[in-house]
Amino acid sequence: AQSVTQLDSHVSVSEGTPVLLRCNYSSSYSPSLFWYVQHPNKGLQLLLKYTSAATLVKGINGFEAEFKKSETSFHLTKPSAHMSDAAEYFCVLGGYQKVTFGTGTKLQVIP
Amino acid sequence: EAQVTQNPRYLITVTGKKLTVTCSQNMNHEYMSWYRQDPGLGLRQIYYSMNVEVTDKGDVPEGYKVSRKEKRNFPLILESPSPNQTSLYFCASSSPGQLWGYTFGSGTRLTVV
Predict the structure, then answer these.
(1) Which residue on chain B is closest to A105 by alpha carbon?
(2) Per-residue DSSP letters for A11-31?
(3) FRET label pair with A70: which of A80, B1, B16, B64, CA 20 to 30 Å apart?
């Protein structure tokens, strides 16, 4: 069985400070991992995906994620938060037939 | 533009009245799936389809039906909706070439009274 754990349900940062959203996974197979963002009353947008070609993955809007197999983690980071980053973020473990979502992390950005 | 289109965006209905939420994608994706999103529970998979005429249950299939007669369409059917099916529903599509990353529709907010 595969699973995804987002370690924080809420994260609050000040504008201009770094963002760290944590995600751990469990999978019997080589994982495909994704981060999605959902702004209020909107659908889900793909931020980035891990393709196994590189452990550090760059996404849209300045976000990055690093795949660490030894720690079974895929944490999402951004050097400097912007007000427009306030949203809910989902870590997703993909694969043939089965896709598993984390329960989401709500990011609050304080002016 | 590559997209997944869901209709309607909002729907209020009464208990027991059959309804269908449509989903269509224009990317020739083999894989399509339905999810419901509820506060505190995240997204849970209802049904998925690996290709035309191939469908299978996800984690929460009770009370739902699907069909995949054409590659581009994957409607979600609620034969007898109940209030516990009030939720936000998302359709998504993908393909092996996308490493199973999904493209999502904009969502359907369903209220059953």
Answers:
(1) B42
(2) EEEETTS-EEE-EEEE-SS--
(3) A80
